[in-house]
Amino acid sequence: YRRLHTRETRLSKFNQTEIKAMLGSYTKVLFIRDPFHRLIATFLQGMGISPNFSSFVQEVLDSGMHSSSMAWKPLVSLCQPCLIPYDYVVMFGFLRHELEHLLRRAGLPVGSLLSEFTDSQMQWTYRWLSEQMFSELSAQQKKQLSHFYRWDLAAFVFFRSFLSE
Q1: Whole-prediction pTM value?
Q2: CA 60 to the chain's CA centroid
Q3: Residue 102: which domain range?
């Protein structure tokens, strides 16, 4: 496959035979994160122009799938998990445990690299932030967000996600 080692990174640039060959020759890892946590992180990083979280969420809902920002698009639309057979799906919040397994499977050293990850503290922080931010939203916004991310919520198990409650 002559174009396998080109600079092109989008699968859409290759034909079906090349795509199949590439996907079959790589270990495919998908990193996922609760959609509501992604929204919180995006807001806290100042990627929206809104003064508060509720306004930011309304911006996201108004722009919907037409937005060019990958920061809040549903994962299913970005990563095509129904079309690409991922070998591993690693969930944010369980990085330490899942990366340790992945590194061992790849035959790489685990030790010092994983000592930086503190998942339990991260989970607690995001649970607290989620409670605070979710309380700022109207019932209509909560319903619209759950609908906007319905395919992510159906494709992946996000433990105790505010959007699936």
Answers
A1: 0.76
A2: 16
A3: 27-41+74-107+114-164
